[in-house]
């Protein structure tokens, strides 16, 4: 770290946003851990684990393009406030379902997860595109995005560990209820912000189809954004869904309990947090695309050793290493998109990026869950590790080819 690592905190609005989201995301990761553990404990099905992930993420993919258009047409702050209030009610419903509908709880969880996915389809584009409005010096945008990712992953480090303890000692209802309570923090932080009304940069009388086509045309004309989104999609489909199998590693391979799952997910968060802090410490002007390719290769190496290690403590070490590299896939690609997109297209382009990520990961989760049923979780993750290294290698070759093409021109 260096003196510029925390530059974005000099902006009051960003500091409020950061603190509120940090508390809320603790609850979010507690709920995610509880969902995975509950579904696998009841069904003993790797496929159902994949379906539970699919139920949350795929509706986000379907609705995010509409969310991006809404984020470009209307005030992003207001949209975020509304989606957070609705998310609070969803968390309350999830808690009540766990308490009163034990017999059919898996299907209640899947249904309410799908509802959350729809909400996130509108929430994520507004939240991501609002970050620019929270900082005064726009050159701090990459730093703000990296710090935002560090907050997400610090909560992923702490949240699952707390969830494992709460699940064992207090039960699943308390775990789900904690998520509902956590929304108080984010709503309070949003209400304390003072953000100028968003300037609408394009006409709202265009059809949704025309607005979507305009955004796609912009992406096609920008090779940097296009390649980052394609790389994200391939990694999201083939590699990132390895996390679907963490309950299998915790319960079947390491013979552990809910606390074991909490520790595993927590170390994924630790590695990702360290990766995000590394990215926040990069100097302005650093070639992010090369960092993305190299860290993705590191992601694959870590996964390879994790998949083949039966020693719990060594596996945790390699998983942390993998998660350090994995962070670049989610953070640098997002930064590349945000830094290179015109504000007129910001909401829609971000929504297309999110649509690619949130559609490929759930499809990949179902594939991973199904394939691992036949060849085992360790072999499945080994294959994903090899694919990560191949994709990183091809992406680096592409970047060098593009650099040579630009030099020739």
CATH homologous superfamily descriptor: MFS general substrate transporter like domains
What number of structural domains do the residues give? 1
Shape annotation: globular
Give me the strand/helix succession.
HHHHHHHHHHHHHH
The CATH top-level class label:
Mainly Alpha
Number of strands: 0
Number of helices: 14
Residue-averaged pLDDT: 82
**How does CATH name the architecture?**
Up-down Bundle
Helix fraction by DSSP (H/I, runs of at least 4): over 70%
Point out poorly predicted stretches: none
Radius of gyration: 20 Å
| Annotated CATH topology | Growth Hormone, Chain: A
Structural class: mainly alpha
- Determine the strand fraction and express it as a percent band: under 5%
Distance linking N and C termini: 37 Å
Describe the sheet with the most strands: none
Could you walk me through the main structural features you see in this protein, from its secondary elements to its overall organization?
There is one protein chain. The protein has 14 helices and no strands. The protein has 409 residues and is mostly helical. The protein has one domain: Growth Hormone, Chain: A (Up-down Bundle), CATH 1.20.1250. The mean pLDDT is 82.
């Amino acid at each position: 770290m260096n003196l510029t690592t925390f530059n974005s905190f000099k902006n009051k609005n960003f500091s409020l946003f950061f603190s509120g989201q940090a508390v809320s995301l603790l609850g979010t990761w507690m709920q995610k851990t509880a969902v995975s553990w509950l579904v696998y404990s009841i069904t003993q099905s790797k496929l159902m684990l994949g379906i539970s992930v699919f139920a949350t993420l795929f509706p986000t993919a379907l609705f995010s393009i509409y969310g991006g258009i809404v984020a470009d047409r209307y005030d992003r702050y207001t949209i975020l406030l509304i989606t957070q209030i609705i998310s609070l009610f969803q968390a309350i419903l999830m808690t009540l379902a766990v308490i009163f509908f034990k017999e059919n709880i898996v299907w209640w969880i899947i249904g309410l997860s799908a509802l959350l996915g729809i909400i996130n389809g509108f929430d994520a584009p507004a939240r991501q595109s609002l970050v620019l409005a929270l900082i005064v010096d726009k050159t701090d945008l990459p730093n703000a995005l990296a710090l935002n990712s560090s907050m997400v992953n610090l909560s992923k480090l702490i949240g699952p560990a707390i969830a494992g303890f709460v699940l064992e000692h207090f039960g699943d209802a308390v775990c789900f209820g904690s998520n509902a309570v956590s929304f108080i923090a984010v709503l309070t932080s949003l209400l304390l912000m003072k953000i100028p009304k968003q300037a609408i940069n394009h006409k709202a009388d265009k059809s949704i189809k025309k607005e979507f086509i305009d955004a796609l045309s912009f992406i096609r004309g920008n090779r940097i954004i296009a390649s980052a989104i394609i790389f994200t999609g391939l990694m999201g489909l083939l590699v990132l869904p390895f996390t679907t199998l963490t309950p299998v590693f915790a319960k079947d391979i390491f013979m552990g309990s809910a606390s074991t799952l909490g520790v595993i997910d927590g170390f994924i968060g630790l590695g990702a947090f360290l990766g995000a802090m590394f990215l926040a410490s990069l100097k302005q002007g650093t070639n992010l695309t090369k960092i993305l390719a190299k860290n993705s290769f590191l992601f694959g190496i870590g996964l390879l050793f994790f998949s083949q290690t039966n020693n719990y403590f060594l596996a945790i070490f390699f998983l942390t290493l993998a998660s350090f590299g994995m962070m670049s896939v989610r953070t640098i690609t997002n930064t590349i998109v945000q830094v290179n997109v015109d504000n007129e297209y910001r909401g829609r382009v971000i929504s297309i990026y999110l649509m690619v990520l949130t559609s490929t990961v759930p499809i990949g989760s179902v594939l991973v869950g199904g394939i691992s049923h036949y060849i085992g979780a360790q072999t499945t993750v080994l294959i994903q590790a090899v694919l990560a290294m191949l994709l990183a290698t091809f992406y680096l070759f592409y970047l060098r080819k593009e650099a040579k093409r630009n030099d020739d021109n």
